[in-house]
Specification:
This protein has helices at about 1-25, 35-40, 150-160; strands spanning about 55-60, 65-70, 75, 80-95, 95-110, 110-115, 115-120, 125-130, 130-135. The protein is α+β, with helices and mostly antiparallel strands. The chain has a single domain, classed as at5g01610, DUF538 DOMAIN (Roll), CATH 2.30.240. The chain is globular.
Length: about 160
């Protein structure tokens, strides 16, 4: 019996640790973790690089990341470039840059070409498509673009 009395405080301690650990591991939109958009700002990148509708993300200590959307997303950038984000986008983040990107492409003429890197230099943001770079004013990314073909209600319907 004496052993079981000592077990109760230990069980209470373990239960408390489990609850605290569960609360601190809330991802994306939890109160203790920054959103994917806030994380971009911490890396000195504008939140408008990501379209609206991020459902979650994973950011590892080495800077590699994954961002999840309910489905693929397309939008016009600067009223000229059709950009597509897959339902899963990944890469590596460092101050002022995203490299080794997968899941982002831009339509050039009739072809979809992958965007491999995004870099910030002062008030300009450059997107690298192979060896070619296209630069835009940072202000073009002050707000997150909306995906064509669905709004917030559509996002909720797509994720059900």
């Amino acid at each position: 019996m004496a052993g079981s009395k000592a077990t109760y405080p230990l069980l209470l301690l373990l239960a408390t640790v489990a609850v605290v650990a569960a609360e601190s591991s809330v991802g994306g939109n939890g109160t203790s973790s920054p959103t994917a958009y806030e994380m971009l700002e911490r890396y000195d990148l504008p939140r408008g690089i990501l379209p609206e509708g991020v459902e979650g993300y994973v950011l590892r200590p080495d800077g590699t990341f994954e961002v999840y959307f309910p489905r693929a997303c397309e939008f016009l950038l600067s009223h000229k470039w059709l950009v597509r984000y897959d339902a899963r986008v990944s890469g590596s983040a460092a101050a002022g840059s995203l490299t080794a990107l997968e899941g982002i492409s831009v339509k050039v003429l009739f072809l979809w070409l992958s965007v491999g890197e995004v870099d910030r230099a002062g008030d300009r943001l450059s997107f690298y498509i192979g060896p070619v770079a296209t630069s835009f004013p940072l202000g073009d990314f002050a707000e997150s673009p909306r995906c064509r073909g669905y709004d917030r209600a559509g996002v909720a319907a797509a994720s059900s």
